[in-house]
């Protein structure tokens, strides 16, 4: 008995052997791209792990887009390494055939090897098609549409190879036996049939997974329906495989068992992932700002749900210290604030905005943007010149947004990084000059206040985000819409100040029918409401030029406290408050940034 991988056949002296260089070229291309994919997979798993999700193995389709069909990251990563090992042995076996001669005047890789030239052509094409998928993963990117195309396209290429190899072995089986290549028959079934079938099975599973991801995260259908479709496609594939294996092509597929290994492995990964999630502890996030605690379980599964249940007891392992309770005694609170007063001189200051951590306060004064540390109450060594007329400022998602007043074309909102104040872009509008901007409903909707020049028409414009398409433009019955704010726990309403003398504070509903109702009035025609801010206890702090600060309950709209500061600050332009009752006021006339209060610990 002769074995192709061990010894050569006896060759007659008159037989001439010639290599098929195109065939060898296809084998070389397949080998190169196979090695590229192995390196990419290792780089994804080891060097590009997700810092946000704290996982050692990072698969974009799993960690960033969880579904009910998603196995554990380790299970799908490890089975790819099994595929790579199988492919490596397959390629080595094929390369050995390049140097092995048969008695018929050809090399083994040319004939009767079942993995013929066209198999390597489609294999090279499939590897080239799938390589960008891993390259995108290494760059922490995952395009849903292109991913489906790459998975399904590569799967089709591998299925073509699998069919050709099966047919080729069946047609050349007598030649294998005539040349006494008995071991090679079994090596063909083990390496080619099972290796390619394993590769195709993993690709088929990831194709189903990509389809589910595409449906869910493109908001085409509900997650449950998408998962049902994906599972149905997977089940249909298993049924087809079972029918082909046991009825139609029994003789050819009788020894091809690797697909069942792949499916059991991956489906078992789903079971282990769900078991880990169910056995994990419940995460509790408490928000004293709105007197609520929210329980999050199964954080890595989809969909996420928050359930409101008043019959749940929450046990805290340590007291909450970041936020203070509501100071219900406003007289005591204001007294404490007055006893802790500091100020900085900033000529012509008009705008204030806090970053999300309450660590830095951005100031706009004399067309200059500058940062102040809320800890030391001193200037940070960061400042930048702004366009002429820069006045109002807003903050969201790591950026400061600066508006121009008086309004001038082009109608532009200028964007600056909160880290180093570098300019990162512009937002242009056609409805008028933008003053302030605020994000709503988990950053899916944006409200922008605009004015025309001269100040005759004010609008509240709602844009879908991040598409930045206009959703609704509301013409307001006021002429100088300037201040804009909302309560931290309620996106249903925004509050707008009419900066005219004798102007009022208004409440605007953020969804249809967009009711615009009076919230609070000025005490006299010599006052002007310029800005509003909110503490964590449903209280509005409003700055009034020629008066000071008034505090309102946003539910009852009642005035809770009036703090007259007119003798000290006659032209208050902006106001912000931290979650620990540090109040910042910007007075343009005196050129003062005032801070009242420090870290206060209220008892009620």
From TrEMBL:
Transmembrane region(s): 21-39, 78-100, 120-136, 148-170, 190-217, 224-244, 250-272
UniProt-listed SUPFAM superfamilies: NHL repeat
UniProt keywords, alphabetically: Membrane, Transmembrane, Transmembrane helix
Superkingdom assignment: Eukaryota
Record carries keyword Transmembrane: yes
PANTHER family referenced in this protein's UniProt entry, alphabetically: SI:CH211-161H7.5-RELATED, XK-RELATED PROTEIN
Name of the protein this chain belongs to: Transmembrane protein
Source species of the chain: Adineta steineri
